[in-house]
């Protein structure tokens, strides 16, 4: 990738335009037009290929995430009333129906808001906290801050046994811990710094970075594992052998954001090296794209979907590579970005009907034609489009400054 | 399918030989050679392509099922000492480690027998009861009968809330019931008649047949649903829209066995019609084979593995078609059997290394190369081979008698 500065600048502008335009002219209108339940409140997320609602259940991960998305756009992109209204539309429903008497967030509700699945899943709470803390930035009403802070405190208290009474593991035989929670807390603590304060975030950050970059890091492979023993050692079991490349790539940009906050250059380089390593490892040499799951010893995985290509994996990988390139200038990041960009834009977006397909088979053809479902909502695609747009502009600014300095 | 009697007889003999020989010379030796844990007892089930153990956890579904398999072979095929020894090898381990203090069967143990996953899954109990009741036929020690009977009683008591404290559904909002338990009880009650007695089985049978053939039956489609409201009505949700063609086909031969016991010809015809309907519905017109899951309204399923081809689905469908043909003589059953036989034998068995692949992608290529895992053990393949062998011989006998009567 040795381009003349002028050509590189033009190319960066083109990429930036593509990500921005897909976000603002395609993906966000798709959700605004199709996902608001005007009758009962909250968001529909089960949207078929053309945006029609095919199921009306309301999954709390996706309710909280969509609230975050519209609040964030309002705060960071433009103070559009319809974006704030869309955020408030979700917030009102969540306030009314989202929690049990102890303040824990249900996993799902029916259309009317009655609870369907108990609050067994701590990530429902994580994304509710994420959503309300962003809404508080968009519209600083104390209630929103209170909900976010109270939820965050409950998450910290539940941390050591997140599933609580629904935990099916027999105590003591194989005490494992999972990568997802420290990874999400890494992003969540940064998103909530305006509510938590610098000191709390500092303390939490140091602990989380240690967990992600040392405890779950597997030095022999240079990868990060999904589950390790409580003491950090490798567990030779289905859970212990599992690698989720998309998770690692998403975590690496969360950690890179923390590293920027801490101005920790060695940490930034470490995230970049792990990202490049996991891409090499997770890339499907036969059909392209990033595999969903692998077993670190090469054994069959439990997950029957291991060879599928998922939207969020590719979206988060694009963000990760651009951030790594911005912060380190390592040309391998740019080369990987271009390779991944080409695969992603060839297979995931649906220019005819809008938004992106979520689930492709190994060959890259849509396995499910939905645009939203139980797990895919208004989150990874638009967040990644926004992050890529911003990061491409930052790269452009940095490279322009460098060129000017050289002259 | 209009063959001369002589040709048909030869063809039936060839099929019978194939199923018998694959059972006795390939599949059973594969498990005998690779799955017995000589050090800690019980069975390894995670076996790779060539039979090497790649994981040592012990999953109770598969422990109970393998115990059943070897006990059944000893009782029904030949009193081989090594088969009885293999059964006792599993039984000893299960007696020592399988249950909690209340007599509920854990979901899984580690290699040494320490509990890993709590007894949240009632099917662990079902397959333990199945195994010990068959062992009691092979070796009538009272302990085995007691374990089977006590387990069966506990299953009946847990029936209305099988997941107990691990149930994550919020009470009352959407009270669903699931097809799996009545379906398994249909088979289990018949398998345990020597312990339960005729009257108990009669009462249970009538109730189960009603559940399967009327409550879960969906008249508009002629199919059977995986989940319905407690009152039997259709629930328009991911769970309520789910059809699992393999489940239906397996259930139809369980019900056909019950119908034979009751000498209920209309019921036999009903199972045959549903089986033919579900095959038509579940058959992949593009690539052949039976799809794993479908949504009855044609919406995307929750299950990412919906388009895969699973060993047990095809094995159970073969049994179902042969029994339907034996009992009704409907030539459509024989035509479907031949079509399915061809697909199955082309894609699943691995003559080079033994046993069958379990998980194929939509195109029919192995998606996982394992021969055994967390869910695939020494059960569906050998049971189906045995059932097909026996049923083919019965068809041969019946058709020979008919031909003799005609002369």
Automatic annotation (TrEMBL), chains A, B:
Q: List the GO biological process terms.
A: carbohydrate metabolic process
GO MF, one example: isomerase activity
Which UniProt keywords are given for this protein, alphabetically ordered?
Answer: Isomerase
Q: Which family does it belong to?
A: Belongs to the N-acylglucosamine 2-epimerase family.
Q: Which domain of life is it from?
A: Bacteria
Question: Which organism is the protein's source?
Answer: Pontibacter chinhatensis
Protein name, per record: N-acylglucosamine 2-epimerase
Instruction: Output the SUPFAM superfamilies linked to this UniProt entry.
Output: Six-hairpin glycosidases (SSF48208)
Give the matching Pfam families.
GlcNAc_2-epim
């Amino acid at each position: 990738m040795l381009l003349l500065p002028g050509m590189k600048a033009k190319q960066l502008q083109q990429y930036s335009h593509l990500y921005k335009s897909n976000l603002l002219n395609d993906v966000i209108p798709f959700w605004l037009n199709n996902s608001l339940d005007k009758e009962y409140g909250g968001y529909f997320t089960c949207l078929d290929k053309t945006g029609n609602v095919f199921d009306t259940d309301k999954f709390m991960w996706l309710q909280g995430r969509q609230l975050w998305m519209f609040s964030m756009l309002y705060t960071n992109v433009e103070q559009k009333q319809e974006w704030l209204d869309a955020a408030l539309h979700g917030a009102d429903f969540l306030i009314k129906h989202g929690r049990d008497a102890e303040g824990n967030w249900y996993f799902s509700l029916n259309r009317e808001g009655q609870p369907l699945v108990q609050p067994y899943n701590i990530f429902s709470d994580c994304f509710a906290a994420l959503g309300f803390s962003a809404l508080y930035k968009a519209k600083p009403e104390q209630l929103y801050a209170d909900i976010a802070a109270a939820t965050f405190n409950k998450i910290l208290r539940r941390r050591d046994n997140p599933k609580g009474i629904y935990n099916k593991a027999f105590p003591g035989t194989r005490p494992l811990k999972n990568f997802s929670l420290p990874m999400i807390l890494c992003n969540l603590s940064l998103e909530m710094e305006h509510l938590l304060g610098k000191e709390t975030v500092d303390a939490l950050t140091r602990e989380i970075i240690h967990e992600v970059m040392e405890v779950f890091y597997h030095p022999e492979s240079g990868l990060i594992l999904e589950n390790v023993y409580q003491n950090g050692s490798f567990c030779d079991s289905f859970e212990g052998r599992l690698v989720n490349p998309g998770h690692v790539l998403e975590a690496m940009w969360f950690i890179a954001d923390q590293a920027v906050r801490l101005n920790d250059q060695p940490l930034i380089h470490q995230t970049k090296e792990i990202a490049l390593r996991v891409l090499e490892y997770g890339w499907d040499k036969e059909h392209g794209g990033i595999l969903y799951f692998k077993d670190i010893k090469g054994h069959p995985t439990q997950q029957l979907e291991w060879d599928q290509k998922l939207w969020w994996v590719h979206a988060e990988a694009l963000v990760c590579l651009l951030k790594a390139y911005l912060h380190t200038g390592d040309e391998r990041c740019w080369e990987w970005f271009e390779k991944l960009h080409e695969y992603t834009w060839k297979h995931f977006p649906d220019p005819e009907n809008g938004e992106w397909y979520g689930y492709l088979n190994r060959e890259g053809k849509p396995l499910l034609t939905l645009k939203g479902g139980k797990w895919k909502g208004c989150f990874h695609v638009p967040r990644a489009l926004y992050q890529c747009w911003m990061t491409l502009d930052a790269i452009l600014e940095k490279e322009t400054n460098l060129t000017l300095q050289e002259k």
